[in-house]
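The following block was generated as part of the benchmark described in Methods. Ligand: S-adenosylmethionine.
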Amino acid sequence: MTFRYIGSKSRLVDQISTYMGHPKKGAFFVDAFCGTGAVAEAAAERGWNVRINDNLHSAVISAGARLVSYEQAAFKRLGGYSKAIAKLNAAKPVHGFMWREYSPASLDSCGIERRYFTQENAARIDAMRALIADWSETGAIDEVEERLLIADLFGALNRVANIAGTFGCFLSKWTSQSQEKIAMRCRELKVSGVRVEATVGDVFEVPNTAADLVYLDPPYTKRQYASYYHILETVALGDEPAVEGVAGLRPWKDRASDFCYKTRALKTLSSLVQSLKAQKVLLSYSSEGHICMQDMKAELSKIGKSTMRPLGAIGRYRPNKMASSTASDVNEFLVVVERPLVQIPKSQARKVLASKPALMESYA
Ligand SMILES: C[S@@+](CC[C@H](N)C(=O)[O-])C[C@H]1O[C@@H](n2cnc3c(N)ncnc32)[C@H](O)[C@@H]1O
């Protein structure tokens, strides 16, 4: 994964894995705020079936791509995965939405010169995304292959984006990487796949059972992912929203997360944990987050036995080298919540099924 994703647990995943235990037959490891999917991938490597969820399509696509096996990405009609990638790299540039809104060509269309990508790279992104959509429409690729290619396109565009880590805004001066020609690459696929279910939706809607192990990694600062990763969301959806302002944000407020507001974070977290069916819940949080660790412990202890495990200091998410040299380390915690098994009345179980979010994919 080439992503610089706020709050990614890629550097803590080995420590978090030690709390996953052995996979239970028929149960899922539920990564309910999956982000990049680093933790879901570790669970799958331990043999867990995984359910990934996020309220951003782009996150679920990125996370799902980490779990794809060779068998699932055969690209039979295109002559294999590497041929598909080669065709995308050879696609003729198209002056489409990315070019119009996120390269200096935006000066003509809206009077603001946005420098996320050079004109040539933006036009190539348009061409690659259009070709993926075309393959999907004509049945040349299936849904798993389509999402894998979109995730590979995220990786490629991220390498040439003229940004300081996230897509919150572009840099005024061009970086040297942004001048390189965009190129997609094949990723390492999995030898064998576990069962994967993927949903895009609010965390409160994620299906889970008593036997599942639910992992929660909510946002802990005011940074809203929907605005920081807006361009990825547009590439994921392949739509052409009305974008606004200097940064060219797509409308994102319907995806604003309650966990990003200091005044709402604790109450929302507490009702979330309370609403889960899973007997065991793992929760990642940071000592620099909106909720103070003592308040969290007090609240979660009302729900079940709660143990706080410090995961040690990891480097703060750093947008650039300058920030990196001045920032202090952030202390990350894993809270293990275990609660007594409760019998769910049948009527309530039916309600849970009725409110299930749209299932993007379920494959073995
Ligand atoms: C801290 S990040 C997760 C990082 C992830 N564990 C990783 O290693 O990459 C939080 C994620 O929660 C998602 N999110 C925020 N609010 C949400 C909500 N109400 N429902 C579902 N996902 C949400 C964000 O889009 C973001 O991807």
